[in-house]
Amino acid sequence: MNGILSLIGHTPLLKLERFLGHEHFNLYAKLELLNPGGSIKDRPAVQMLMEAWQAGEINQDTTIIESSSGNLGIGLAQACAYLGLKFICVADARTTKVNCRIMQAYGAVLDLVTEPDPEVGTLLAARIKRVQHLLESISNSFNCNQYANRNNPLAHHQTMREILESLDQRVDYLFCATSTCGTLRGCADYLAQHGFERTKIIAVDAEGSVIFGDKTKPRLIPGHGAGVVPALFRPGLEDDYVLVSDLDCVVGCHRLLHSEAILAGGSSGGVMSAILKLQDQLPQGSNCVAIICDRGERYLDTIYDDVWVSEHFGDVAHLWQPSALM
Ligand SMILES: Cc1ncc(COP(=O)(O)O)c(C=O)c1O
User: Fold this and answer.
1) CB 3.0–4.6 Å: which of 92, 109, 200, 296 could bond 123 by disulfide?
2) How far is the CA of 39 from the centre of ligand 1 (A)?
3) What are residue 290's DSSP bridge partners?
């Protein structure tokens, strides 16, 4: 890969010295937020396009069509801008203004679905139908379909390889947020295929997401979680899982910001809260890695907005004040 796309991946692994306030185990952050498009989704975006190109499924005149309201849309918008491909992103009314503007700045066309599907009753179903309609009406169009595309998890073999290389192959725990389960599946498959039995994966999902059998309910923080079980998921990819609430995500984000000066997105806050929940079970001296999926700037109007936080959770700032961090 050339140009800006050549900078995707090989993100730093940073030792977090302050977040825990103790050193029973070693905590590292895989800083996927430093990918050029701002998230871990740069990896599958490029991998899905490059593999489709090599397989002859797309060419210079193809229109890429994807349903995404977040980071994959931005990753594809970046890759399509560099490769000179047309990109239509099907999003909905819940897509944040900032994400829409980032995609548009890269040159993506936004196709906004405003009404839930009349038969199924959800915006997700309406978006999927809209993608089908566009694929049928635009000749030479292509849908990556991140929920079922094997190149989504395959992109994360490299994520896992990089983490292992950074720690001399000695990783005891990997905490990873889940949505399409591309990251979980890719990291788990890599570990299994290369005999890394020592490494345990802790999946971190949202309360109200159905991946691990929770009952669906409205969620405030985008990124992690899913309303239908993704085709990429298999039970047992994870060694354990933790469900985190929206408040857990907010608290984890602010604790990360106050202790380490890292401005990260909502799922990263969830991952950090999950580590706090399990910290007493993690053995002394073990190496524990948290994947920090995206940048915090995309959450300035929510997680990092005092008014939004107090409207949804009340007075919670004491949960991340320095005294609570000790
Ligand atoms: C911020 C964030 N965290 C976590 C995830 C989950 O990653 P995956 O789709 O690989 O399960 C996503 C997916 O879009 C995301 O955008």
Assistant:
1) 92
2) 9
3) 29, 175
Going residue by residue through the chain, which has 326 residues, state the pLDDT in tens, using 9 for 90 and above. Answer: 899 999 999 999 999 999 999 889 999 999 999 999 999 999 999 999 999 999 999 999 999 999 997 899 999 999 999 999 999 999 988 888 999 999 999 999 999 999 988 988 888 889 999 999 999 999 999 999 999 999 999 999 999 999 999 999 999 999 999 999 999 999 999 999 999 999 999 999 999 999 999 998 889 999 999 988 999 999 999 999 999 999 999 999 999 999 999 999 999 999 999 999 999 999 999 999 999 999 999 999 999 999 999 999 999 999 998 666 55
Q: Please list, in sequence order, all residues whose beta carbon lies within 8 angstroms of the beta carbon of residue 138, skipping any fewer than 6 positions away.
A: 63, 65, 88
Does residue 63 share a domain with residue 10?
Answer: no
211 vs 240: CA distance, rounded Å: 13
The answer to whether 171 touches 287, Cβ cutoff 8 Å, is yes
Pocket lined around ligand 1, Cβ cut-off 6 Å:
39, 41, 70-72, 177-184, 223-224, 265, 267, 293-294
Residue where a domain stops, chosen among 113, 143, 173? 143
pTM over the 0.85 mark: yes
Pairwise CA distance, residues 98 & 102, whole Å? 6
In a shared domain, residues 49 and 184: no
Domain enclosing residue 259, as ranges: 4-34+150-319
**Of the candidates 191, 217, 193, the residue with the CA atom closest to the CA atom of residue 205:** 217
- Which domain CATH number covers 87? 3.40.50.1100
250: CA distance to ligand 1 center in Å? 16
Compute, in angstroms, the gap from residue 173 CA to the centroid of ligand 1.
Answer: 19
Residue 287 bridge partners (DSSP): 26
What is the phi/psi pair of residue 71, to 5°?
-70, -35
